[in-house]
Every structure is written in structure tokens, then in C-alpha cells.
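Problem 3 from the worked examples.
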Amino acid sequence: MDAWGTLLATIVGAAIALLGQHLVKRAEGKARLAELLLEQCALLAASSRDFQNRVWEEQVLSMEDRVSNWDLSAHELASARLHILSTDQTLLSALDELNKAGQQLGSYWRRGNVDQAGYTSRLNRYRAATAQFIAASGAVVRRRLSQA
């Protein structure tokens, strides 16, 4: 009977160890996803602020080619990654608004001969979209990190 008890204890111990490994891997996967989400959201927020700064540098400091040298492809790559990583509709809607407002501001600015009222309204929309995106991404990332 002792042999059967030992065998049963060994099997139960192995099952507990396998279950523990599975749970640890699952938690690590969730944590990694949350980290990737945080990284993409931070890249997009920084990229958006950089774009605003470049427009300001051209407008106020009369610097040339600041907007045209902005890394649009990095912004688009981070946007695509975020669409892949997240299903949160609030976050994705905020991202879409950010991108639309940025396109509108950028195309208006690059046309040249902008009037102050048109520029200000587009810049304010972009600033509001950036703030909305940062708030939405912060909520999603905090929620994911607390679940990991």
C-alpha cells in the first residue's frame, strides 16, 4: 500500500508542477502583451508630440523641412501594431481620430499660405486627439498590467 501512496503522491505532485508551469507561462504572456501595448502607445504619444513640435518649429522659428522630415513610417508602424495588439474600441477610436487629425493638420500645413484660424482649429483638434489617445491608452495599459 505504501508503494501505491507514493505513486499517487508523485503523480499529484507532477500534475501540480505542470499546472504551475502553465499558469506562470500564461501570466508571462499576458505581461509581455501589456508591455508591447505600453510600448506602442508610448511611441505613438511621443511621435504625436514630436509632430506638434515640428509644426511649431516651422511656424514660429521659421525652420525648414521639420515636418517633412518627421518619421511618418514609424508612426504608421506603431499604429498598425496597436491595431493588431488591442481590441479595445475606445483606444482604437482614439487612435483613428489622432491619425485623422494629424493627416488634416499635416496636409493643411504643407500646403503653405495657411491662415491662422484654419491652422489653430486643426492644431487644437490634433492636441485634443493626442490628449484623448493618451488617456485611452493609459486606461487600457493600466487595466492590462493589473490583470497580468
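Problem 4, a separate protein:
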Amino acid sequence: MKQFMLLSIAFFTISGTNLKHDAVSATFNIIEKGHVLLLEIEFDEENYIKFGDAQSLKVTKNDFGNYLNKTTSWKIDNEEIIPQVLHIKSVKQHTKVICFLSKAKKNIKTVTVHNKFLIDVENHSNIIQLDINNSFKDFRMHKDRIQLQVNY
């Protein structure tokens, strides 16, 4: 009986690692940290390697920065912001990237986002999270909604 339980647990553990995600998405979080605005991005590494113009099987700062700037644009109070990739960390099939956006801004009035990141992945969504002005807002973008303007 003990062996059966161990085999059952092993089977479900192994088979569970190959399951596809229910929701295919990337998350973009603009967040105030101290005196700076950061953009934290989380996405499925396999989708990026397949669809994101990657030059290798690893997510690199240069390749990712080029792809991010090709597929997204960011404006805060009508000032265009170009994200600068600071750090990339991959854990299993997910990757988290931290980008510097700008020095912190007081009383942001508008945020405009144009986002086609991994839009060629079937049923892909880009979740935009804004953790600024002492408030939190989030929005879903997809192939039929690639432009977003948020007013505060």
C-alpha cells in the first residue's frame, strides 16, 4: 500500500509538470519603489523563445530589451519612457524581468500603453498593473485591445 501511494504521488507530480497553462499571459507591473518607477514583467519563457525574436534558447538582456521596445511603448504624462532592462531571472518555465523606467513622478495624471508583447501566441493576454499614486489598477490587453490610456 505504501508503495502504491508513493507511485501515485510520483505519477501526479511528474504528469502535473507537463500541463499547459489555463491562461496564457504576461504581466507588466509599473510600480513606485522609493525614488524610481520600475516595470516588473513576468512571462512564459517558452512562448518568448518561440515567438519573441530570441537569438538563443536563453532570455538575454539585449534580445529582451530589443523585443520589449519593438512590441511595447510607454508614456507617463505624455512623456515617452524607454524601459532599461536591469535584471532577468528565469525559474522553471517562467521569467521575471525588472526594468528601470524613470525617477519617481509625483501625481501622475495619465499612463498610456501600447502593447503587442507575444501577441502572436494564441489566446495571449497582457495584464497591465499600475501600482502608482497610492492606488492599484489593472487591465487586460489582447490582440483586439493593444492600446490603453489610464487617467488619474
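Solution to problem 4. The helical segments are 2-16, 45-51, 61-71. Residues 9 and 15 are 10 Å apart (CA to CA).
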